[in-house]
Amino acid sequence: MRVPIHSSRQQIKVVIAATVFMMCGFGTMTTVGTFMKPLEAEFGWLRADMSFAYTLFTLGTAGGGLVWGHLSDRFDPRPIAIFGSVMMAGGLLLLSRQSSLFNIQLLYLLIGALGLGCLYSPVLATVGLWFEKRRGLALGIVTAGGTLGQGLIPLAVQELLEVTGWREAYLVIGCVYCVLLAPAALMLRKPNVEIAVSGTAAARQAGWGLPPELSVALLSIGAILCCLCMAVPLVHLIPYFSDTGRSPASAASLVFVAMLAGTVGRVLFGSLADRIGGLATYALASGGQTVTVYWFVELEWLPSLYVLSALFGFGFSGVMTSLVLCVREAVPARVAGFSTAIVSMFAWLGMGSGGYLGGHCFDITGSYAMSFGGAAGAGIANLLLLGTIALLLRWKARATSSRAPVALASL
Fold this sequence. Notes:
411 residues, mainly alpha, Growth Hormone, Chain: A
């Protein structure tokens, strides 16, 4: 028996709220790289040390996501979202008052654990509950908010830095977040009834057929590798472009182009996943970011860098969307929420490690060639892993089909 489809008006509200959360949360991630040059100029801190704030932010998001994601399975996500909104906006306001590297690193850790940790896994899980059909498209739109934030926030911050100091820029961002996040938190809630599934939908809910533990483990390894690949440019593109003599505004505009392409790409990749499946879409997205990431240190002509930024943004954009969908496809519905939190935790670990290693390689070599080369290597390793998963699924399908005639004969 089918449960009536949820109100389309409420579905739209949830998608809008979730998109705002992703925009602000992922925009906060970019502030580490955007503020790196001003902080370096004022305090003389090493880039690896400043990048470690990004690492702590992602570690906090990873650990906090497990806790908040678990709680959101049992309670209304609205209070969690309200708490996360307050912590994120408040943390940015506090950053404007700091002069200690340790305090800045600690605040980014707390913003990740108590801010984005509340607004990532719980929000994505809630969106998934509202949709029986076109879940990929819905999640594509929501995650597109993340790339939009990663493009808009650096561009806006660079404009602020031109007319104010870095402290005032942090203050303005925190105030804007208060205005955006408050109404979004009030719009988020779970559906009143669960969506009933039957037929082919029920078969999809059963998972890939591999042991759930194996599926989650493989996807977690893939999450680390693909996020190692994307983290280096996301954290270090603005400092790298500034080092090559381009103005900070020009560097921010290149990042904006990447994120604008990513905003479109996430919607398209989400829609594509509804047709060809999450794993195939994940492989296409991972391949796109892998083949483009190293060319940032090879190309010098500005128009070609804009084209490359667009191609990279379009490629990396589908990774998060398709990875979340892969988890939903890989495991039974009863463990989908916690499995998503686990894979997301490893994705954040990959993001944090990539951001730090990119800065560390620069500090020891004085060049970003090793940083971006390592990012490409991680992407290649992820593609090999995805090929292995595809072979396992093909072997499982053949084994299942070969047993079917035997079972019928025994009847």
